Amino acid sequence: MEIWIQASIHWLLATLALPKVGLSAIFVVSLVSATLLPLGSEPAVFAYAKTVPDMFWPAVLAATVGNTLGGIITYYMGLAAEKAFERWKEKHEHAVAEHGQAASHRLKPAASLQKMGGRWHLTISRWVHRMGPSAMFFSWLPFVGDPLCAVGGWLRLPFWPSVFYMALGKFLRYAAMTAGLLWVFPNLH
Question: Going by C-beta distance under 8 Å and a sequence separation of 6 or more, which residues neighbour residue 189?
Answer without folding.
Answer: none
